[in-house]
UniProtKB/TrEMBL annotation:
Residues 1-17 form the signal peptide. Residues 14-118 form the Ig-like domain. It holds the Pfam family V-set. InterPro entries: CD300_family_receptors, Ig-like_dom, Ig-like_dom_sf, Ig-like_fold, Ig_sub, Ig_V-set. Keywords: Membrane, Signal, Transmembrane, Transmembrane helix. One of its GO terms (cellular component) is membrane. This is Ig-like domain-containing protein. Gene3D superfamilies: Immunoglobulins. It comes from Sus scrofa (Pig). The chain crosses the membrane at residues 160-184. It is found in: Membrane.
Length: 218
């Protein structure tokens, strides 16, 4: 009974072994672009594929390329990494005719787990390889928000550091002033002590008799 429940969950419950990846990729004519898609543990042993989407009312696949020992057909290759729970699709030497809608999918019993990917090809000089993974599907507005938040936090930090620096400068100036005052005081004390010593020396010389007379008959 339990295996039947698990099988039913795999086929019916949404989000079980969900496949995640970018919704669109782009490149210039002649470019090589790639995308990475991640999947759940339940889809680890299933075949992965890439195909062109055709049809309007009922979407179908055309030119399907499956992952496997070779996983390559023409300019398209699909490489699965079960240990990392992700697979990579590489599109080489893009042409304007390649632009369109594609399916990135995984074969399952019943309905496949797949999502649509829009490929945009621009005319022009070939650019460096563009690679997108499942994390690239996030809204770029989050990046702008994070950069704005970083620039916003730099102002309060400056306001906090400025008083600290001023306080340190004041403490340093106070310390230097105290040191200078102490040095001057020591010099004055030394000069005063030297003056007193000279005065005592002069007094001792003035109190000493110039000569002494002795009268033996007295």
């Amino acid at each position: 009974m339990r295996p039947l429940v698990l099988l039913w969950a795999c086929l019916v419950l949404p989000g079980y072994g969900t496949l995640v990846g970018p919704k669109e990729i782009s490149g210039f004519v002649g470019d090589t672009v790639s995308l990475q898609c991640t999947y759940g543990e339940a889809l680890k042993t299933h075949r992965k594929y890439w195909c062109r989407k055709i049809g309007y009312l009922i979407a179908r696949c055309s030119g399907t390329v499956f992952s496997g020992e070779y996983g390559q057909e023409g300019r398209v290759s699909v490489h699965d990494s079960p240990r990392e729970l992700r697979f990579k699709v590489i599109l080489r030497n893009l042409t304007l005719e390649d632009e369109g809608q594609y399916f990135c999918g995984i074969q399952r019993l019943g309905l496949d787990d797949s999502f649509s990917v829009s490929l945009h090809v621009f005319p022009g000089i070939s650019r460096p390889t563009t690679q997108l993974d499942s994390t690239s599907a996030k809204d770029t507005s989050l990046v702008r928000r994070s950069s704005t938040a970083k620039s916003g936090t730099s102002i309060p930090m400056t306001r906090i550091l400025a008083p600290v620096l001023v306080l340190l400068a004041l403490l340093l100036a106070t310390g230097l002033a105290a040191l200078g005052s102490w040095v001057l005081q020591r010099r004055k004390e030394a000069q005063l002590a030297e003056t007193e010593r000279k005065e005592k020396l002069q007094l001792s010389h003035s109190n000493t008799p110039l000569f002494s007379l002795s009268f033996p008959w007295l």
